[in-house]
Write a structure and sequence with these properties.
about 130 residues, alpha+beta, two-stranded antiparallel ribbon, 4 strands
Length: about 130
Amino acid sequence: MRGTANQFGLSFLCEEDYMYNKIVRPSLKTKKWEKFRDKILRKYNYLCQESLRYGISEPAEMVHHIFPVSEYPELEFQEWNCLPLTNKRHNTFHDRKNDKVIGQGIFWQKKRKREFLNFYKNQKNEIL
């Protein structure tokens, strides 16, 4: 961090240090999410899936939604839309200034495109 302290000893951040802060979804504090998150972590042996692509075995620290819940809330509890990651790897999936999907996040969206399209195809068929 390159922030500096003012005369009162309070620090502030320079524009380069700005990180996108978003409101935590209420669902992240529910038992349903805790159980689902644990299920995803167990499914992938608690390992970061992005690290494994490079032959590195690292414990996952969080569960990432490949297609963001902010844009696709209906995909929040779809297993195929979730990926265990380390926090460091997760930061390569989003632009932290605007929370847009970038880099490796786009790679995984392309990789899971078939599941994404099938989900909406099935949703459409259920309505008809």
